[in-house]
Structure formats: C-alpha cells, structure tokens
Write a structure and sequence with these properties.
7 helices, 10% strand, globular, 5-stranded parallel β-sheet, alpha/beta
C-alpha cells in the first residue's frame, strides 16, 4: 500500500517505508488543525487551553509513534492561515505527514452532514475533516474542536449519516482519550 496522493506534490509525502507501509499495520489517526495549532502555539494564559496544549504535546511525544498519522488538504489550508511565523511552524510540523485529498466521496459525505443540520453551514471545514477521515477508513479523528467535531452528541448523528452512506466513521477523540494505558 502506498501513501495517499496529494495535490501538494511529492515533497509533502514521506517515503512509504518511513511510515511502515508494507511492514506492519498500525491504527490510523487523522489529526485535525487544532492538534497542529496546539503543538506549535505559545503556552496559553488560559489554564484549560494550556492543559490541552500540554496533553497534546504529551500525546505527540509519547504516543504518536504507535500510529500512522494523516492530515488532509483542509488541515494544510487552515494551517497556512494567520500569522506568517506561526503558519510556517504549523506547516513545518506537518510537512512529512501524508496528506489525504478531499475527493468526491468526502465532498458528498460533508454535504450530507451539513444538509442534515448535524453541523451548521459555517462549520463546512469541520464537516470536511470528518468526511475525509471517514471515507479514508481512518481509525481515530483527533481534535480539540469540541464544538463541532469532538462532541458526543454530534458524533452520534454523524456516525448514523456515515453508516447510511456505507462508511464506517472513525472514533472521534481528544489526545487525552488516546493516551492509552
């Protein structure tokens, strides 16, 4: 199995052997933009956000090697926004992570999620994160976006929509929930 294709070119994709393709199968984790942001941002003055940043760094440093990690074109686009220095740090962090494309299946599933009102129309990018992870058979979608993504009530509705469309949705969780034993 080769890494997913990317519209950003081969420079963004690592060699297949670096991620263990063909040797052993690891569970797959899609990291949404909040994860990338928490890993590269300055410590927050807000204690809860700072705690989330620390948990994210702990997961990244201690657990990520046990998974195949993916981002999508949506993550790359969002990571490139804002302050140029911080955007460069975010893009540098993800430069060697395979990038999943937003294909027709993902667009169709995202549209169905938005039509169902599981997410508001202003959360179209969040619907795409969920859809890309779902159609690519990702095991876990890692996010700190607890408004639209890591939200049990919303996840339940989105799971039903995904299954109706023939997809098995990922487990949506925060880094704290994916720390392991």
């Amino acid at each position: 199995m080769s890494p997913p294709a990317s519209r950003f070119g081969a420079a963004f994709l690592p060699l297949a052997s670096e991620f263990g393709y063909g040797s052993h199968v690891l569970e797959k984790v899609y990291i949404e933009t909040t994860i990338v942001s928490y890993l590269t941002s300055r410590p927050s003055g807000d204690s809860l956000t700072r705690s989330h940043q620390e948990l994210t760094r702990d997961w990244w440093n201690g657990r990520r090697a046990g998974f195949d990690i993916y981002v999508s074109e949506v993550v790359v686009d969002e990571a490139a926004r804002g302050d140029r220095v911080m955007a460069a740090a975010r893009l540098s962090l993800i430069q060697s992570i395979p990038i999943l494309s937003v294909n027709e299946d993902a667009r169709t599933l995202a549209a169905a999620i938005l039509r169902s009102a599981a997410l508001p129309s202003k959360a179209a990018a969040d619907a795409l994160h969920i859809a890309v992870a779902t159609v690519n058979a990702i095991d876990y979608l890692l996010s700190w976006n607890c408004t639209h993504i890591a939200n049990a009530m919303i996840a339940r509705r989105i799971s039903a929509i995904s299954r109706e469309m023939g997809f098995d949705p990922p487990t949506v969780c925060t880094p704290e929930e994916l720390m392991g034993a």
